[in-house]
């Protein structure tokens, strides 16, 4: 029950998180949470602005004795990734997230938790509402649509903010201080194809890939997690090579920023091959499960009879499609030569839809190096164009270049060491943070990113560590106390 969450410490933060998680807030569907945040600021009697794209800005004056400190922008995004397990009955448009405590972790029942970036939003709300926390003047910036295009950050105009320091609360490791991030671009391949009637001698089968962990397509792209679209394509390719399998439908993956956990397909094969097709496909399934058993112990691959589909894909297009998906880069493309263990460039083959004569394939390509990002995007473009697809490159956003001489970085590094007896990990990340975009209109703002431990973001396995949130909260309070004078 969410009442259990409200008793956790720091109570003011967890209470705000519970309030927030009662509000539906999918990317590009943030109307309810925008009104919620607007009412929150106005009810506190604080200056509250909703800009032309839907970002909410709430300004709170400094507490006594901190009037001469640099104004701080505290920033988090309002939207969350909506993902649920297939067997979970849940309506994200009307229901609040159902949370529970499991040991040292807060989880959600069968859905994403919204800790990314709800814990950051709740932190800022708790500071705005507080009457006894010392802090400089604060400009709270709640952006929209971070997860599917960063259009909120892109639409924020210069001149709305006056702060000299920006604290982005969207990092997911509590010992990390973020100083840079990857940029990204959406790669979308589409084409129409001719459908033909399924011959009478063919029978229908369904194939389902499920049980994969999924996860964040930036932060976890290097972990060797299974990609349901790639796994499905192996099965379809093998079925065609050996049994003349014909594709009727494919429905795999979901959002670009989530590693795909599930895929399903409807296919047709010659009735005479029924027994050997099932046997060989299940043998291949077992081989794939053995390959991935360490990272994906719950992977399931099902093969089952269904009603014979009425229509199947044109043979030539099918051959091109399966070869293109096989060839398309998925995962790490290049590691950074300058920052140890940092993924420089990657791609997530996020979504494959085949139905009713239309193909759509959606990828998210990320890189901290602009030229490498475009190199991989063009590699994917060429791969899909070779099979007759039209390819669009959209949603391009810049990375955030690290500034190792950042004044707030030096202050926070020392504070972290004083509080925890060890040095923080100062790093750039492979996720897309809004700092790079915000810096375009606010180039003089000193930016940093940090947050509590959140695991499994963008998947129903998302969870937030309770002890880490308490550690992070103390860090936030110490930072606000130690903001330098103007």
From TrEMBL:
SUPFAM superfamilies attached to this UniProt entry: Zn-dependent exopeptidases (SSF53187)
InterPro entries: Peptidase_M20, Peptidase_M20_dimer, Peptidase_M20C
TM stretches of this protein: none
Alphabetized Pfam families for the sequence: M20_dimer, Peptidase_M20
Domain of life: Bacteria
Keyword annotations of the record: Hydrolase
CDD domains documented for this protein: M20_pepD
UniProt domain Peptidase M20 dimerisation: residue ranges: 208-293
Protein name: Aminoacyl-histidine dipeptidase
